[in-house]
Write a structure and sequence with these properties.
With 485 residues, the protein is of the alpha/beta class. It is built from 14 helices and 22 strands. The strands form six sheets. A seven-stranded mixed sheet has the order 14-15-16-13-12-18-19, with helices on both faces. Strands 9-8-7-10-11-21 form a six-stranded mixed sheet, sandwiched between helices. The longest helix has 20 residues. The model has no long low-confidence stretch (mean pLDDT 97). It binds NADP nicotinamide-adenine-dinucleotide phosphate (NAP) and magnesium ion. Magnesium ion binds next to strand 3 and helix 3.
Length: 485
């Protein structure tokens, strides 16, 4: 199979002038997949200049809105046609199961493009009630050049959360994918050109966050930063972006509570606990990493969770075979080390390791496999209950009653997602209202839809991706006052 070899700048497939490349690694066997072209500051500047020029001359923003929609739908179609290829890039780069990549992630990329294609000719301003002699109205206009910086857990999907609404509204973009997972975005950039996205409107520049990301965040020609990643990097970005007063949207980390009450359908709740933490090996910002269980059913749930968790034995995904792996390796060596360190911290803090608790050797001695790990008798003050582990590690915490469940849920710096399992509608709705989270599931976990906004409270960031809500982040409102004489 061939791999992308070019940056996408100004509508061209270009190699960096320096010839710089970096290796990208398959976490299933630690082999080098290929060398990825690496942007330096001069490539980033070129990308920003071409995005600026493309925006300022209106080659995209001034098109008839429905035409922008047609191009985005064409791109959605190309993503569907290239589903297997894009899914394979994700599987190789970050160890996704083929099912997750080919049946969930890439099809969702296409669906999100279609969803926002529909908004190109539907987002309107207002005509306000005005007295005689005056007409007042508002226009919604694109912001300009958007810098998109994204992580490696859903490489193309989270990039599309930015691309689709930004493009639909007529902005130009410069995108920096995570170094760990740049291949799918580069291939997507080629498909975007094929679909008819004009030159300079979507630029893809892989490279290090400290170089490429930093340049995008500080460059005066960039109007807005849309970032998904860790809270610590997000805080740094917000500070630096302040110097040029860029608009900033931050989708950051989480430590989401998954709350099971004694009246819940326990079989469904335990299944939800598994989906909540082991889907995509726990490398999900909204992972249900704190399982809060009512004391009366605590022992029963702990036993069922431990039994089910042990079935998620990690194995190497075989690209093209949706049945090949239930859970893949974690995405990188850095992630492998970081997850194992936090597992050790949990042991040192005195949490009880019910199952798992170490790396998994699949017989080859290679690959970043971690056993599905469950701690119980966790105190919410422990590091493993407060820090985002971003791996297949679940902490079970008991509670007595609803008030205590909500208190534990909210005793955390993050506020990205939560779930509540109960048959009592009133209780579900009380918890929905009181929990600090941008998304709350009732009797479900890890479900997403293009129409439903996604984002955080507290240290999980601000602004919303997805839904009509995301469009606010890619438009400026202009108030117009017309004197009718
Ligand atoms: P990260 O370390 O914050 O990196 C995210 C992106 O920022 C990468 O592209 C990274 O580049 C870049 N970056 C790093 N330093 C930078 C700097 N100084 N200036 C500009 N850009 C910089 O996060 P990650 O480890 O990739 O991803 C995991 C995190 O993302 C978790 O905390 C997770 O919860 C969060 N996440 C949040 C959501 C959400 O929607 N809320 C969704 C998914 C993930 P390089 O790494 O390539 O150098
Ligand atoms: Mg990799």
């Amino acid at each position: 199979m061939s791999f992308p070899e070019h940056l996408i700048i100004g509508g061209e497939k270009v190699k960096p002038a320096s010839g710089a490349t970096f290796e990208t690694i398959n976490p299933a066997d630690e082999s080098v997949i290929c060398k990825v072209p690496e942007a330096g500051e001069s490539e980033v500047d070129q990308a920003i200049d071409s995005a600026r020029e493309a925006f300022d001359d209106g080659r995209w923003s001034d098109l008839p809105p429905a035409k922008r929609g047609r191009v985005l739908r064409k791109l959605a179609g190309l993503v569907r046609t290239h589903n297997a290829e894009l899914a394979r890039l994700e599987t190789l780069d970050v160890g996704k199961t083929d099912f997750d990549a080919a049946k969930i992630e890439i099809p969702t990329v296409a669906n999100i493009l279609d969803y926002y294609a529909g908004f190109t000719d539907k987002l309107t301003g207002d005509t306000l009630p005005s007295e005689a002699g005056v007409l007042r109205m508002t226009l919604r206009q694109p912001i300009g050049v958007v810098g998109a910086i994204t992580p490696w857990n859903f490489p193309l999907l989270l990039a599309t959360w930015k691309f689709a609404p930004a493009l639909a509204m007529g902005n130009s973009l410069v995108h920096k994918p995570a170094k760990v997972s740049s291949l799918s975005a580069l291939r997507f950039g080629e498909l975007a050109l094929e679909a008819g996205i004009p030159a300079g409107v979507l630029n893809i520049v892989p490279g290090a966050g400290s170089v490429v990301g930093d340049r995008i965040v500080t460059h005066p020609s960039v109007n807005k930063i849309s970032f998904t990643g860790s809270t610590s990097v997000g805080i740094g970005i917000q500070k630096k972006a302040a110097d040029t007063l860029k608009r900033v949207t931050l989708e950051l980390g989480g430590k989401s509570p998954n709350i099971i009450f004694e009246d819940a359908d326990l079989k469904a709740a335990v299944r939800g606990a598994m989906t909540g933490i082991f889907y995509n090996k726990g490398e999900v910002c909204a992972a249900g990493s704190r399982l809060l269980v009512q004391r009366s059913i605590y022992n029963e749930v702990c036993a069922a969770v431990a039994e089910q968790a042990a079935k998620f034995v990690p194995s190497a995904p075989v690209p093209g075979d949706p049945r090949s792996a239930r859970m893949g390796p974690v995405a990188s060596k850095a992630q492998f080390d970081s997850v194992l360190n936090l597992i050790q911290a949990g042991k040192d803090e005195g949490a009880n390791c019910l199952t798992g608790g170490s790396a998994h050797d699949n017989g080859t001695g290679k690959g970043y496999f971690i056993q599905p790990t469950v701690f119980n008798d966790v105190d919410n003050a422990m590091r493993i209950a407060q820090e985002e582990i971003f791996g297949p590690v679940l902490c079970i915490i008991p509670f007595e009653d609803e008030a205590e469940a909500v208190a534990i849920a909210n005793d955390c710096s993050y506020g990205l997602a939560a779930a509540v399992w109960t048959q009592d509608v009133a209780r579900a709705l009380r918890v929905v209202r009181r929990v600090d989270a941008g998304t709350v599931w009732v009797n479900a976990y890890n479900l997403y839809d293009p129409s439903l906004p996604f984002g955080g409270f507290k240290a999980s960031g601000y602004g919303r991706d997805l839904g009509e809500a995301a469009l606010a982040g890619y438009t400026e409102s202009k108030s117009v006052w017309i004197n009718l004489g």
